[in-house]
Design goal:
There is one protein chain. The chain is an alpha/beta fold. The protein is built from 17 helices and eight strands. About 60% of the residues lie in helices and about 10% in strands. The strands form two sheets. A four-stranded parallel sheet has the order 2-1-3-4, sandwiched between helices. A four-stranded parallel sheet has the order 6-5-7-8, sandwiched between helices. The protein is globular. The N and C termini lie far apart (about 40 Å).
Amino acid sequence: MDVIKKYGDFIKNTTPERPERARKLIRLGLKEEVLRHGLLPDKGMPKAYTRLNQLALKSVLSALEHPEKTVWTNIFAPVELLQCFGLSSISMECLSSFFSGFTVEDYFIDQAESVGIAATLCSYHKNFIGGVDAGVVPKALLSVTTSMICDGNVNTFRYLEEKHQVPSFVLDIPDEYSEDAENYVVEQLKELIGVLEERTGRKLDPEELNRTLERENESKRLYRSFLKKQSRKYYPNTMTLHLYMLFATHLNIGSEECLEFFQKLEKDIDSYPDFHGKGVLWVHLMPYYQETLKGYFNYQEKYYLKACEMNLDYMEDLDTAHPLNALARKMLNNLYNGPYERKIKRVAELVEELHADAVIHFCHWGCKQSAGGVMLLKEEMRKRGVPMLILDGDAMDRRNSHDGQIKTRLEAFLELLDQEEEKE
Ligand code: SF4
């Protein structure tokens, strides 16, 4: 940790005068990680997750090395289309998390606030804005985002468009599904294809889009099968790995590399032992750096993180005969679109499907959608007799999280879970 902190301090000290050098330092750090994980994977990390680790690191590295082939997105953007143009997607949240991994998030957040970005804005946005403003994040080819759930996304990308001339394309996604809504989104997707064709000088290959969607369907089938097996198997993981899953379930879904990862995941679990612990379904972001949470959940069977619901926000098959309609439906019917009741219903289903014994919801500081609905979710879980804990903090700005408070609440909750078991 000290080494990372020192490296982070070096990046922070280098940024004001030489932002490109600071970027180079980040790239060097990432390359070193790719190499280290390739040669000497973490002890106890399952083989499939070693592959996931590489996928995540390489995605971030590519955004920093090849900005001309990179699109800034949120996790709901139609990345399948972008892949067909040889473009890679990096979400603002993922890039921000990696900065936090280098312990430089405070610098970029302060940088954003110093130019007038509201202190109350979610730290993922501030971190990203600060990184771009400081010149450490290179300008992408364009940004593609959706109007769903997050009240910050559209404004962040528009701000970056005005200040740094990174063109932004916003998909307006209606709250409710209807045929009209589907057609409305399909028209916007066609418009996006036009923009992509113009920016890249390439034409969309409909067969490639078809193959991408087929690989996505197969990836999801394998993931569902893995989760089913996981109800009786213990496949070690960490909070960071659950976050890295977003690179597979969202940002690179449909790619060959991603499909290979899911094939490995689904097969590898067979060689792991039976599961005897308590299964936890995690809702929303994970403060991967919190010492207490790491101690209780990273590579632990007693209280086992079965899944994070963000990775399971849309698990339906895509209709490959009508790819644009399928992508429109994927966004319209996403658990994160529309009324909060949709999320409650899906979380309740996941508790059943995954045989989870408890739910933990993390309220990320500055995120209005998560704080606004969490009590409704808690009420539903109470009715269903599912123990649920709400934790507050910041998933990446270490200054906003208090380990002592989290420790007290978490330990009281786990004790309760243990008592429930004794009663049974
Ligand atoms: S945590 Fe909430 S506010 Fe922040 S990026 Fe995610 S949805 Fe938006």
